[in-house]
Design brief:
Layout: E1 9-10, E2 19-22, E3 29-31, E4 38-39, E5 42-43, H1 49-61, H2 69-90, H3 97-104, H4 123-128, H5 143-161, H6 164-173, H7 175-185, H8 197-214, E6 234-239, H9 246-252, H10 257-263, E7 280-285, H11 293-299, E8 325-327
Antiparallel strand pairs: 1-2, 2-3, 4-5, 6-7, 6-8
Length: 328
């Protein structure tokens, strides 16, 4: 879901190799589509006229992204340090991270269709890859857990298609949809497929964002690289009992509710019924005095529950051995 826009004013009609534009951040430039575009180390056939036209549509004529590019760079600096190591651990190409950028702009968005989180996972898909999704817990809102789940999808798709570009398209359309299109159209190549507009533009949009974020100077943005933030140092607390109000847990941990919500947005209500004694891992910042509010709006959806009750009506003491800090 895209929330940052730029009015791009063309000073001349674009041709196939040279596009000029301007905005309020930089002057007029003549730009080319990079000749060596690759997605997950798979080459993009930029010499193909139709493909180049589609790329130009995403690079230059659409209005998705740039007026607030500084905001996007800031989000990348915060969240790629969480996403990149998981992709590497899971054996998924680094370029897959740009899918989270175009899906949610690295925010815990909730779509009208019910897709949630950085990776915009639907409930059934999330559950099939091991995430808990119910009225009180939605692990799609946990950046790291949802990234692991998304990686499982991409690895399954790659086993089926033996191609990361088709796997990326399948993330948008579904593996079944891509498989049917390949069979019906008698091809094994994403670039030969006729797909719906959203899926047909998906990889081209990925390449536009990849170029923006990895080579901003290509668009005249005076930024040599994005300086990543360090991950928030945390300690992990195991909770295996019910929580009737988050206020009590916050007091027990000597922190506030906002600090708990910051790193545990998967707890979608202020309660957690846990009759089976399942262990839930809560993260809290090691430095409780540091301001991490710059992360908060990315993690808490607009209609997220804010835990605004002052005192609990009743409390239940966690088991003595179930709330014990462990180093991350």
């Amino acid at each position: 879901m895209i929330f940052y826009f730029l009015e791009i004013t063309f000073l001349k009609s674009p041709n196939r190799s040279d596009v000029a534009y301007e905005n309020n951040n930089f002057k007029v430039f003549g730009l080319n589509i990079p000749s060596n575009l690759r997605f997950c180390d798979e080459p993009i056939p930029v010499d193909n006229y139709e493909i180049r036209t589609n790329l130009e549509g995403e690079f230059f004529t659409n209005k998705y992204w740039k007026n607030n590019s500084a905001i996007l760079f800031n989000k990348v600096a915060k969240w790629f340090p969480y996403i990149e190591p998981i992709l590497k651990q899971e054996g998924v190409p680094d370029d897959i991270k740009y899918i989270a950028v175009i899906e949610s702009h690295l925010s815990n968005q909730i779509s009208p269709a019910g897709a949630v989180g950085f990776w915009q996972l639907m409930p059934s898909a999330a559950r099939s890859y091991g995430l808990i999704v119910n009225d009180e817990v939605d692990e799609r809102l946990d950046v790291e857990k949802s990234t692991h789940a998304a990686c499982k999808f991409f690895k399954d798709a790659h086993k089926r298609f033996n191609n990361w570009t088709l796997s990326a398209a399948a993330y948008n359309l579904g593996m079944g949809g891509i498989e049917r299109a390949l069979k019906t159209q008698k091809t094994n190549n994403y670039y030969d497929l006729l797909l719906n507009q959203q899926t047909g533009e998906f990889v081209y949009r990925l390449m536009a964002y990849k170029t923006l974020l990895s080579s901003p100077t290509h668009f005249g943005i005076k930024r040599s690289k994005i300086n990543y933030y360090s991950k928030i140092p945390v300690k992990v607390v195991n909770v295996d009992s019910s929580i009737t109000d988050l206020t009590y847990l916050a007091k027990y941990l000597k922190c506030n509710k906002t600090q708990i919500k910051l790193l545990n947005p998967w707890l979608v209500k202020g309660t957690l019924h846990n009759p089976d004694g399942q262990v839930y891992k809560f993260k809290i910042p090691k430095n409780l005095k540091k301001d991490y509010s710059m992360y908060y709006l990315d993690l808490i959806s607009e209609d997220g529950y804010m835990y605004d009750r002052e005192e609990p009506e009743s409390i239940e003491l966690p088991k003595a051995d179930s709330v014990a800090p462990k180093s991350n």
